[in-house]
Amino acid sequence: MLPLKLLFRDWRGGELALIATALVLAVTCVTAIAHFTDRLSRAMEQQSLTFLAAERVLRSSQPVDDSWLEEARKRGLQQAEAVTFASMVAAGDQFQFAAVKAVSDGYPLLGTLEMRSAAGAPSRHVQQGPPPGEAWVEPRLLPLLELQLGDNLELGDTSLKVTGLLDREPDRSTSLFDMGARLLVHVDDLPAAGVIQPGSRVQYRYLFAGDDRALEQYLKWLQPQLTEHQRVIDLHEGQPRVASALDRAERFLFLAASLAVLLASVAVGLAARRYGLRHTAYVAVMKSLGAGRSKVLAIYLGQLTALTLMATILGLLLGSVIQSQAVNLMADFFPVEPPPSRGSPLLVGLATGFACALGFALPPLFRLARTDPMQTLRRDWSNPDRREWLGLVLGPTSMLLLIWWLSGSLAITAALFAGMALLVGGSALVNQLLVRGRLSSLGGAWRIALGSLQRRAAFNTLLIAAFGTGLLAMLALVFARTALIDEWRMQLPEQAPNHFLFNIAPHEVTPLQTILADKDLTSTEFYPMVRGRLTAINGIPAKEYKQDQRNGEPNALRRELNLSWTDNLAPDNRILDGEWWDKTDKGVSVEVELAARLNLALGDMLRFSIGGLEVEAPVASFRSLDWNSMRPNFYMIFAPGTLEGFPATYITSFYLPPEQKLLVNDLVRNFPSVSVIELDKIIERIRDTIAQVSLAIESVMVLMLVAGVLVLIAGVRASIAERLQEAAIIRTLGGRRRLLLQSLMLEFGLLGVAAGLLAAAGAEATLAVLSQRVFELPFVFHPTLWLVGPLAGALLVGTAGTLACRSSVSQPPLQVLRELA
Amino acid sequence: MSAMLRAENLHHRVATSEGPLTLLNNISLQLARGESLAITGASGSGKSTLLGLLAGLDKPTEGRIWLAGEEITAMDEEQRAALRARCVGFVFQTFQLLPGLTALENVMLPSELRGERTAAKRAEEFLARVGLEHRLHHYPRQLSGGEQQRVAIARAFASFSGGDGILFADEPTGSLDAGNGDKIIDLLFKLNAESNTTLVLVTHEQRLAERCGAHLRMDAGAIATADTLGDNDNLSEVSV
């Protein structure tokens, strides 16, 4: 009872409000961010799975055994089927190749189809394809076939009524089966159509969704039975670009939550330290009145437990309300409604509350229990930091363990540890500089400010570390977010090519170039392409050659490769070793990852079989490239003059604005042998998803910045009383207000600069580890960080400190002294 | 009359950066129940250190102390705290009231630490005895210096759980003006006489020392003189 009674009295006296506020702040921030990240990451996951229209897809070139599907049904999984192939469709006298997709009931399992029932009607989301006997078509197929909605078209031997315009399908792919305008039909119409014959190039996609565990068990059962023509695809394989963006975003959100823990810990640590100092006299008196160490400890542990529980509950409530309001406010920006909150983020908040309390508030309380009662007689209320190691070890350890648990990433934990270690080491160094600095040559405000800094050098070390942590968290987050979003923007620039043309005959190159130029469309180079097989390396036949065959990588020795030649190195290509054709005139440039898999060295002799003829060329260079650049790219680029004798077709890519989409029809009509791959819809969807992810990141960052500023304020408050007293005494002795104000601004400004510089160093170290180990981005040095850090530090800490202490300058000094007494 | 307080050959040294510093050197004394002792001396003579050791707030480097018949130098910190909770009261120069607690709650604190259920009633009685029954729910900052010291005196007497009590006062008038100081001293001696408690006080004030039955004057950590002041015949109990 006594701890609770004292807790109540302490609370009323305002002492405990400090630590309680910090705890509530900590739990609120972490809970809000954990909720927010949990809901967003689940929303993103749901959104991303719609790229497959399912959670997993079994892809096969043949229909699979019915028993496999039966087994899925038995295990309670949802299942649907999609068959894709290219086929000629007809309407009256018009014929056109179309990318046919025949879907079963239930398709799509995830995501929606966007279609219109009339040309001018708004697009609507539907969760099933056309019924048997009907067809939905991509709008540009209508003019190609001179059709209207409601007319019939012929697919093989069957006639289907066109009842819808298909604007978007969740799982449109870039494969050869999806070339041409889309025709969506019901799978039950396929037998009557008779378009699928033995030997037809068809892709069967079996879609699965359902309980995670059941799905996992089913795939475990299925995997051993798959042939080499069958594969189970998840998001990473289906849409690696989206998967990578989501992975990185998720890691970013975990990083943000970890930084929230870091900030919260610092806030609680500062508040607990201040509480401990202010209670030294309290405990000394209690001890002189007969309270032993164990009694004092029991009282304060009881208080801390009750306080932590209350603050945590309040923080959980506030955090939940804030995140729900934040999600509501941003609802319009998210294409997918985030799923409802669940319990796990509350657990994170609870753990944060207790970890912060135990890790950061417990050591000052242990120190309190060791207070010497003789202090009542000496009237000395300093709280010597004996056994400070407990605080130094317990706090950071509990914080790092919490971050590790929260982020699930040793790399994030290590990165933050590295940044913090640098920051604390730097703070100690600054302390030494402060203690040894000479002030005799300084005058006025500088002398007062630096004198104050010197007198509190030890505490200032802690304060710089605390301010530095707040700034580090903010800087690391802002720069990590910038790096991620820039990377995504670079990957998908506004006018990235969104259409590929291939199978272009040599005589079609110039007319096509003319058409594109007439329409103001910029294409990449028209690359010649010859199909060939790599048959031997240094005379060793390919069949006998041992290669580093990584899981899932294409086997370059067992299939035909697209071989090209050009003088111009594409912008996304880079020669890493060897020479390009400006320095040598023979050989072949090999993509660096393929070269690594084949264990190639410069000068190795490669033999190719092209149309029955053999060509040999030495490896002239290794070349890196960006497969995501939306440009034609090649594993092998020959020196001009090597392959010109072989019959070649050409390939190019270009950006086609949506309003010029019907140009595709002209191209298809005028160049019937040229194949068009339309990536615009996919790029649009990827861009939407990445915009959503970016928004999530931005909003979490704003929350974090608010938390960071609160920590700075907590730091200022922790040091305010002594400064107020000094300022009041100086004013009593005749110090002018302006002088005091200047000295306060200087003192906090200098603390901010020191904290900002150290935070920049810590953030640079953190970002170095994060970029390489967590975000898989190249290391970049950030010169602006070193400018922004000290500036932001001076501005934020200087302003917060001066504002907090302004009462000492504006109020009569006697009033300040009386209030402090 | 049996000894309430006894000290034998006390030595106290502390470690400093310049080597060990002797604070007390060979102090012995004895005080009977219900009597009063004034300890005087210049600043730094060791009087507050001696007070702290006699009250069991710290342990001497050498020597033995008995308080209320129990040897506190043989006790650990917890045992000494338990003894203080039973029979030791303190009055400090700067009052040492807890700022977050009202006058009543400050006086209740010693009883609450002992787990007594009647803490509030007992505290009200003591506050009435020091004339502050109308200031029960005021915080220290709302009280004058003299009133704060009266609350501290009430708390000190509330510290005794019955039986023998010994009150240690460290410069009890040091923060008060002469008028208030006199009133506080009158109150202290009045309550001391009513409760038959033993009183040990440290003071700079000669007139205060003169009201005590025995007087030790300290110099450089040792007893310089030990006198009987007034007509008290208990000087024999104080041995140098």
TrEMBL record, chain A:
Name of the protein in its database record: Putative ABC transport system permease protein
GO CC annotation terms, alphabetical: plasma membrane
Source organism: Microbulbifer donghaiensis
Membrane topology value: Multi-pass membrane protein
Alphabetical list of Pfam families matching this protein: FtsX
Predominant cellular place of this UniProt entry's protein: membrane
UniProt superkingdom: Bacteria
Annotated TM spans: 252-272, 296-326, 346-368, 389-406, 412-436, 457-480, 695-718, 739-763, 783-805
Keywords: Cell membrane, Membrane, Transmembrane, Transmembrane helix
Domain named ABC3 transporter permease C-terminal: residues: 255-373, 700-812
Subcellular location: Cell membrane
From TrEMBL, chain B:
Sorted UniProt keywords: ATP-binding, Nucleotide-binding, Transport
ABC transporter domain residues: 5-240
Entry's family note: Belongs to the ABC transporter superfamily. Macrolide exporter (TC 3.A.1.122) family.
Alphabetical list of SMART domains matching this protein: AAA (SM00382)
SUPFAM superfamilies on file: P-loop containing nucleoside triphosphate hydrolases
GO molecular function: ATP binding; ATP hydrolysis activity; transmembrane transporter activity
Protein name from the UniProt record: Putative ABC transport system ATP-binding protein
InterPro entries (alphabetical): AAA+_ATPase, ABC_transporter-like_ATP-bd, ABC_transporter-like_CS, ABC_transpr_LolD-like, MacB-like_ATP-bd, P-loop_NTPase
PROSITE patterns tied to this protein: ABC_TRANSPORTER_1, ABC_TRANSPORTER_2
Pfam families xrefs: ABC_tran
CDD domains in UniProt: ABC_MJ0796_LolCDE_FtsE
Any one cellular-component term (Gene Ontology): plasma membrane
Transmembrane segments: none
